[in-house]
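Researcher: We're teaching a course module on how sequence relates to structure. For the next exercise, students receive a sequence and then see the predicted structure as tokens, so they can try to spot secondary structure elements on their own. Here is the exercise chain.
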Amino acid sequence: MVRFVSEFGAESVPTTAPFIADELAVHSWPDLDWERIAEENAYDLDTFERLFPPDGFTTFEEWQRTTQFYQAHVLKVQIELLRTLKYRPTGGFCFSSLADPAPIVSSSVLDHARVPKVAYEFVRAACAPILVVAEPPPDWVNPGDRLQLDVHLVNDLRSDLDFAVVDAVATWAGGSQRWRFGGPVPADEVVKVGTIDLVVPTTLGELAIELEMTSAPHRSSNRYTTAVTLPPN
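Model: And here is the predicted structure for the students to work with:
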């Protein structure tokens, strides 16, 4: 357990990627000169081949978006967890990098042209002074599973929230379930406001959990998703 966490994150392909455009001008996707890109543009060949092999994607844009959404998910989950551990024991954090100095594949959230990656807005939202957050659900669940996800409210303001209301709703194709929690939140504190207790529906597909906190004039919202799938035979 540490007091200050740093250097966490995930690498992604930048939005502004002239080195890929140059390759696509002479080669067809995904048959690019990956060795050259690795040498000149800090491309981690082994890691990307393991997590996001280019030949598993039909276009460069699809591959690029996937790496950016993965990075956004990693940063969102890590920052939210660290914020719920406010002072006990986490006294602060610093993710790996903010902006690129050159056209490279890196863990930054702004590329060398200062164009935001998908993760930029996720990080901004996760660092808001008031944040409603739930335990992230598993990547997939099975019908009939029981989900119990604690909901916390982080208040980094120097003033109390006299009364905050948190509305939670789980939605899936053809159905939904709602919860409401409420109470005071002291200044500079994290409070557990309740638990989402849900039996996973039989409907296959996306299961979304949305949170909305109101404490006039303050608001905070958050969203999580998982997939309802059949268990393997």
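Model: If you want an answer key for the exercise: The mean pLDDT is 95. Residues 76 and 122 are 6 Å apart (CA to CA).
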